[in-house]
## 1
Amino acid sequence: MNPVPSPWQPAARTDRRNPLTTSMPTVRPDRRHLASGIPGPLSSAFEARRRAAVARGVGSAVPVYAAAADPGLLHDIDGNAFIDLASGLGVTAVGNAAPDVVAAVREQVGLFTHTCFLTSPYSGYVEVCEELSNLTPGRHEKRSVLLSTGAEAVENAVKVARAATGRSAIVVLDHAYHGRTNLALGMTAKNAPFKQGFGPFAPDIHRVPTSYPYRDPQGMTGEEAAQRALEALERQVGGENVAAIVVEPVQGEGGFIVPAPGFLPALQSWCREHGALFVADEIQSGFCRTGAWFASEHEDLVPDLVITAKALAGGLPLSAVTGRAEIMDAVQLGGFGGTYGGNPVACAAALASIEVMRTGHLVDSARAIGDTLFTRLRALAVRHPAIGEVRGRGAMVGVEIVEPGGRRPGAEAAQRLAKACQQRGVLLLTAGTHSNVLRFLPPLVIPPALLNDAVDVIEECCDELLA
Ligand SMILES: *Cc1c(COP(=O)(O)O)cnc(C)c1O
């Protein structure tokens, strides 16, 4: 009798070798290259398998499957080469598969892959914390805890703030993005798709208006915007209840919003006067991205806590909370932890990445990238009234698309532009509460010729698609 196949039987294992080895030319193109339609046949085949295996809730901006990456280029399994303006969401600042990071990871992974720092410690963890003490703003004594993801670090910063102040209210801003765990979602502003259907969210999180110069009343200063936020806070929360104000010094997912000068310093001063912590979520803006090691430096901010992740470890999952020693050490022994936090391979990658940032002067590279992008995109904005604003700091640049003649968000046009760029071999993403901001987050080691070619493509797409 033939056994009825169990519905749980896994599909027959097919060849798991990287399809690159069978389908791609041995020499990878060193510039933008279209070998097939986007997506090509191999990627399309994986899309079909994906639909049957991967949950629908996981999206992808471009349905092409990665095979390899160089500084500035992402190669797919069909042999297409895309100019990378996304860095895997601002992660591979030192370049994807950066040789020094790869070497450090290879060495560590051959020694030990994991012990759990709570079981038996290792030097890499301590060294990453030392680097964080030295690099983050302020010369005071600091301590750090290492975690795995940005959202997890945000959660731990909230723990610290509550333990250190004995208060519970957490104040966040309009357009904020702090991650996707339940507590982090409560702090994130945008409903769909991030929060829709997932409530209720953790209590005692309060949202106040931010400074969004392009959309605030004309001429509103940073101090005035801070006044607006602090009045709301005092009315709705009560100053004496606030454990922390958590800000992104440049808002990322919310639309690459740079607050007006004076806004963040005023919030910091208020925190100092009222015994609350000023917490900077530098997960996206940190590690050279904005033309400084941390975006807080642009306004001489010295946050009580700095949250880092993304570019910290060159593509491996690692995050951290770094802060004043006495504040961090308010958390009791055993109050921090997690199986994977500060994984040794991720720590090795972080130490190598930080060394590349330092010796490669990636702060300067970020500024140079910003100069190119601002000059060329602002020139483009002059002939396209649908480009409402070009803004950002360093290599964190956003282009807000609007309906010509006004400032109503042009989400559809922004999505069409991003798609058109992708079809021509430029990996460009969008962001923003209204999904109408083109976001530029290139690796900080992108060769200038690739960056300029990408902007040529964007110009072409704008000229064809924008009114
Ligand atoms: C990406 C991001 C997070 C969340 O990090 P994950 O690693 O995705 O959990 C939090 N805050 C900011 C500012 C981010 O950009």
Note: Residues 362-383 form the longest helix (22 residues).
## 2
Amino acid sequence: MSISENLSEIKKSLPTQVTLVAVSKTKPVSAILEAYNSGQRIFGENKIQEMVSKFEDLPKDIEWHMIGHIQTNKVKFMAPFVALIHGVDSFKLLQEIDKQAQKNNRIIPCLLQVHIATEETKFGLDETELFDILDSAEFKNIKNCTIKGLMGMASFTDDETQVTSEFQSLKKIFDAISKLPVTDNFSPEILSMGMSGDYKLAIASGSNMVRIGSSIFGERTYF
Ligand SMILES: *Cc1c(COP(=O)(O)O)cnc(C)c1O
């Protein structure tokens, strides 16, 4: 099937409240254009330099989402245009995004990444670290970022019970932060969870943003 056929199949399967981020990492500009031409406007990348070069080559009405792990010293390259940063996993990183957003005279929407998988390798905050950030006095000094919600990745396993329980644990945390007062820099609306292999389980557990790559663009080959 073609990219546009894959896209329309997936879109048909998504409830209306769920936003689709088409994960185009490692894929060429031509593949992104094919998705763009069939109406997709939100794309996700996991490497800042790759996202910057695609931003430069592609139409300017694309919303670029950074979904990967972020090195603080590279934030400045995406600060002029990034639409949503999913992987904020430390206060230090949030401060750097805030600083670069301010230089660009922007407010950058961010998600805090929570560690829900049993695997050691996935990045993210635990629940205590998350609340420590939100409750801290320093958080009030963040003026050029808005925390729009949470992002998480389940374990890479066929065990659907485990994946579902990990997604549910994130939904529970999301519900808890949703009870906190909305402020200038905190307005939780987005729960980003679910990839090609597990997005249906994620949606059943309350996700409203899915990040889908290989089911749209085909398997990735890394060199
Ligand atoms: C690569 C990636 C995805 C998409 O993965 P697929 O299995 O190809 O859909 C989603 N989220 C993150 C954080 C990723 O790095």
Note: The chain has one domain: 3-217.
